[in-house]
Amino acid sequence: MSDRVSVAKTYKLYLDGKFPRSESGRTYPVTDSAGGFLANASHASRKDVRDAVSAARKAFGGWSGATAYNRGQVLYRVAEVLEGRREQFAAEVAACEGVSTAESSAIVDAAVDRWVWYAGWTDKIASVLGAANPVAGPYFSFTVPEPTGVVGVLAPQSSSLLGLVSVLAPVVATGCTAVVVSSAERPLPAITLSEVLATADVPGGVVNVLTGRADELGPWLASHADVNAIDPTGASREARVDLAQRASNTVKRVLTVPADEPDWTRRPDISRLRRYLEAKTVWHPKGT
Amino acid sequence: MSVWEYAPAPESRDLANLQPAYRPFVDGEFVDGSGDPLTSVDPATEETLAEVGTAAESDVDAAVRAARRAFEQVWGPMPGAERAKYLFRIARLLQERARELAVLETLDNGKPIKESRDSDVPTAAAHFFYHAGWADKLDYAGYGPDPQPLGVAGQIIPWNFPLLMLAWKIAPALATGNTVVLKPAETTPLSALVFAEICQQAGLPAGVVNIVPGAGDIGSAIVRHPGIDKIAFTGSTAVGKEIQHAVAGTSKQLTLELGGKAANVVFDDAPLDQAVEGIVNGIFFNQGHVCCAGSRLLVQESVAEELLGKLRARVSTLRLGDPLDKNTDIGAINSAEQLAKIRELTASGEAEGAERWTSPCELPERGFFFAPTVLSGVEQAMRVAREEIFGPVLSVLTFRTPDEAVTKANNTPYGLSAGLWTEKGSRILWLADRMRAGVVWANTFNRFDPAAPFGGYQESGFGREGGRTGLEAYLHV
Lengths: 288, 477
Hints:
The structure holds two protein chains of two kinds.
Chain A: E1 27-31, E2 37-42, H1 46-65, H2 68-84, H3 86-97, H4 101-121, H5 125-129, E3 131-133, E4 139-147, E5 150-154, H6 162-174, E6 177-181, H7 188-198, E7 207-210, H8 214-223, E8 229-231, H9 237-248, E9 253-254, H10 271-275, E10 277-285
Parallel strand pairs in A: 5-6, 5-8, 6-7, 8-9
Antiparallel strand pairs in A: 1-2, 3-4, 4-10
Chain B: E1 21-22, E2 25-26, E3 29-30, E4 38-42, E5 47-52, H1 57-75, H2 80-96, H3 98-109, H4 113-134, E6 152-156, H5 162-175, E7 179-183, H6 190-201, E8 209-211, H7 216-224, E9 230-234, H8 237-247, E10 253-257, E11 263-266, H9 272-284, E12 296-300, H10 301-316, H11 336-351, E13 355-358, E14 373-376, H12 383-386, E15 393-399, H13 402-409, E16 417-421, H14 425-434, E17 439-442, E18 461-462, H15 467-471
Parallel strand pairs in B: 1-5, 6-7, 6-9, 7-8, 9-10, 11-12, 11-16, 12-15, 14-15, 16-17
Antiparallel strand pairs in B: 2-3, 4-5, 10-18, 13-14
Helix pairs in contact in B: 2-4, 3-4, 4-5, 9-10
């Protein structure tokens, strides 16, 4: 009797709700923390970046226009589906990050809880950041936060799941859409997370995940005129100055991020949500 | 119909208390700047108003050191309730000297006295009064307990609303406990230096506010100075991009309030006479030198001809001339350089096929003036539909459906403001949701208030000025 041969997964990109290979045909081997082969990941190219930005732009109207309640339910659904696949993620994180199964399980739990935390913000952030403005005149003036647009996210290089969720969830919670470049060495949880997103009713194009090198793909994101904001977390320190300079050509919002990856298990605050929101002030006269 | 002529009603120039020379203000004193002096010109007469000492890099350095010292030793440690009282004092002093400041502003900038008197100066005072109250209430601003100031703020402001932009910059910075080094625009430095005198009269501690007149090189020195923690800039998108580029990779915080190409959208059910007033205000207020000016009129096709007729008739009644005359609606263009830019862009509109209509008003023999102009038949690809003219020139486009209006309104890399004119409330709210712009005026235009956040989407900049939201620009959040 022979042992059953397992069916290995082909890891591809997540683009416009589908799972294509890189148009470049490039792949690169991904290993576990001990150097053992795990999979060949797609090595995304500049063209993939452009396709992802197009998809994210196309998805922006629908996602930003969805009700906050609806977005909250979709993001909560992400947590539900992720919870159901805890063991798979724990194994993948353990392999990628070289931590024990107990540690990786705790990481997955924290990632699930983070989705839940941000899911709950979708229909509250406007009342926390918005205002009725007491202007000196016969006008109704109010201010509401609105999503900035398409966000380029260079995901953390070390924390392959919790770090990724911590930078991605606030983007989509605000109603923005995302183009994510995953950790280069630890990309597998990002692609598996994409499968969760695809089955959790997150509309195609709202999140696009590219596996590859942040320092190669980041400059294309930072100089793309249809990207409104950049999170440089996953870029090397040297690359961040170049990213910020490129971003200035179209006045992109560039997140201020710590030099080194922070402790992602710490309780987040609303600063990331704030960064992806624009205050809009509306005036109307009062009269008969 | 008989025509009633207006008798001239000029405000007295003497009220400006114009001095032959003005000097930079550093560390609580007026100093001889090491830069080459500039002359400030009355754009309505092209006469020299005064000589203004400018800062050199060494003066910027001295100002930053003074601001740092004041931040660390006096202003930072001072309880908010005490800071507040200085800001209240400044607000009151601005009100007390309002007439003088209005005349001075009109002389230096060229804007009609009725605007500097009724808008610029009172709104500047209001900004200080509003922010004064925040100084001891920052715990309630939504940024957590005891939010901390950034430190020394370098602020660079434009020439279109010299005193008001100064107030938008300095009031929130001081209220939150920062100290400032501010550069007024090269062509309009005078009211900022009178403001420095007001700081002295208010007893504001030395170094809290420093005013360093100069040209772009001094702005650049501020942007690059390592002792500055935050840059706040209002001006063109081109310069804003340079500043963002220069600040990239440093620890400086940045907020930018840049250009715009706002759509003013008129539907067929709008009260057209009211809309005409809003359109006129939207583009001809302050000679169109307004970043949020409603420079693209989008009118529903079915009422386009009627609206254009009413608009031309109304614009023909606008009085252009001596900015000090209380009857004047359109004053002088701020500089020869700006006038040349307006002429060039308007000519490009004609060359690209737009139909030009210009008010038949007479232009004064001297001074920089440009008659109110309406370009109709404008297409989205034309430069006059895409580029900021920053002058009294309106580009008129048409649309058929609400969706088309939204698409055309948002077809710009800018995103500062938008105007909407329709009687239908549900349509206003539907459109307001879809305008990719930081300020939306519905059935009104150009309303400003210190309690209402102002700022842009996309290439119109980031950060807000005014309201609780505006405090974020000067706090560690």
